[in-house]
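User: I'm writing a short report section on ligand binding and want a predicted complex to refer to. Could you take this sequence and zinc ion and write out the structure as tokens? A short remark afterwards would be nice.
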Amino acid sequence: MSRARGVLAVAAALAVLSGSCAAMRSPEPGTVVSEPGPIRLDFVEWNASTEDLLKGAVPEAARALGRWGGLHEPVKITVVNSHWELEQAVDRPLPGISAWARRNQVLLWDPRWWPAPPSVEHDPILAAQIRRAQVTRLLAHELTHCLMFQRVGGPPSDPQDRIPFWFREGMATLTAGEGAQWPPPESLSQWLAAHPGVDPLADAGTLSRTDPTVAYGAAYHGFDFLVRRYGDGTVLQILDRMRARGGFPQGFQDAVGVSVASFGTDFRRYLSWRGFQPARRPRP
Ligand SMILES: [Zn+2]
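Assistant: Sure. The structure tokens for the complex follow:
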């Protein structure tokens, strides 16, 4: 997820919001050296425990990007102090969202303020382990957005609207290994039977506002369907051809050899005909 509008000087704007009682800003924002390129930590309000958490989680998250050749440009992770500050920085409501990616920046709501699951309230060690796993997955997701925006290019704005929701979120959720969070193909198949007029890929952007679980599930499994059929190299070709041809439909057609609409039809059939189930053995 990214957004060109509302790009603002986060640190400057939030310095006003955090007021004089804010802790000292880190004098030298930490740079985490990771395989896909330097990732810099930037705090609106520096906190030692958050910095420790991120210095452990960032390299692990960044390793997942190796599959796509890594980042082409540096990225700054800006830690803001509250969910409200995140929404202010992005200039839109972000229900249920803890981070936001742009081409060279990830805005992150400080994980120490994230609500912990009630089941681990009295187990700080387990709570810390869960938090670390959550942060690592989230950063892998957001850094994948940075990678795709960098690869597609197109300054000065991020190409959010040029990459369709299903591909953008599918690539991020798959890279971050978030499949278990979303409905399995069988659930999507049943949903599709009940909503025959909806295209789970083409309409995913609209669905993300009305039925986000279905939208993200369709994005994850649609992208997984693409990768298993055509391979990782084709995904990179789509991004590269997008850059060269100036649009997703043309880039997709060039790289995959079929149109986006045709691929969407194949995916609907895969769900409707339950192509995800193992083939039955013929009876002897
Ligand atoms: Zn995303």
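A remark for your report: The chain has two domains: 10-152, 163-272. Residues 1, 141, 145, 169, 172 surround zinc ion (CB under 6 Å).
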